[in-house]
Specification:
alpha/beta; three-stranded antiparallel beta sheet; 3 helices; 9 strands; globular; binds inosinic acid
Length: 172
């Protein structure tokens, strides 16, 4: 496995898009207070840049999802880390690195919706619509990409490459 010679998305392209996303999100939530729920681990780099572009008061929480192939059923998603504060009545924005099949996102949204927030929306840096298996509504999307496996800017392959400032395609 090796990285593409050139980034799929350069650091400058990512930063420019994050600034635009920050503006749209700030407009959407103007006059409200936001609870940002970042998805560990991949969403950490993105959320740390994104919240610095937001012009609304916010609190930051984390959630972690782990999916595994169960013995009888496939694609079970566990949530070993959950937000510390109750979300009832809050305006919740889930911030994720990537939506691939959408299975993880669906499990996260279901779990958070059960807490009866005032609103629940999703912001992902990358979306791979060709891979979705369930319909997922994404209110804020950074980039729509083709069906590549990508690393960098928080995204890993076996825990590596998260530190890269740009996003690369992992090639055979
Ligand atoms: P899901 O298929 O949408 O449930 O995605 C599950 C998880 O797989 C994502 O949250 C990412 O952590 C990981 N993932 C999916 N596609 C990629 C990729 O292209 N690069 C790195 N991680 C990925």
């Amino acid at each position: 496995m090796r990285l593409s010679d050139r980034p799929l998305l350069t650091a400058a392209e990512i930063q420019a898009r994050v600034a635009v996303l920050g503006k749209s999100i700030s407009e959407e939530y103007r006059g409200k207070e936001l609870t940002v729920v970042a998805v560990l681990k991949g969403g950490v780099v993105f959320v740390s840049d994104l919240i610095r572009q937001l012009q609304v008061p916010l609190t930051l929480e984390f959630i972690r999802a782990r999916s595994y192939q169960g013995h009888l059923s496939q694609g079970i998603v566990e949530l070993p880390v959950l937000p510390e504060q109750p979300l009832r009545g809050c305006h919740v924005l889930v911030v994720e690195d990537i939506v691939d099949t959408g299975r993880t996102t669906a499990a996260i949204l279901d779990r958070l919706a059960a807490e009866q927030p005032a609103s629940l929306a999703l912001c992902c840096l990358l979306d791979k619509p060709a891979r979705h298996i369930a319909p997922i509504r994404i209110q804020f999307v950074g980039f729509t990409i083709d069906d590549h496996f990508v690393v960098g800017y928080g995204l890993d392959y076996h825990e590596r490459y998260r530190e890269l400032p740009a996003i690369y395609v992992l090639q055979e």
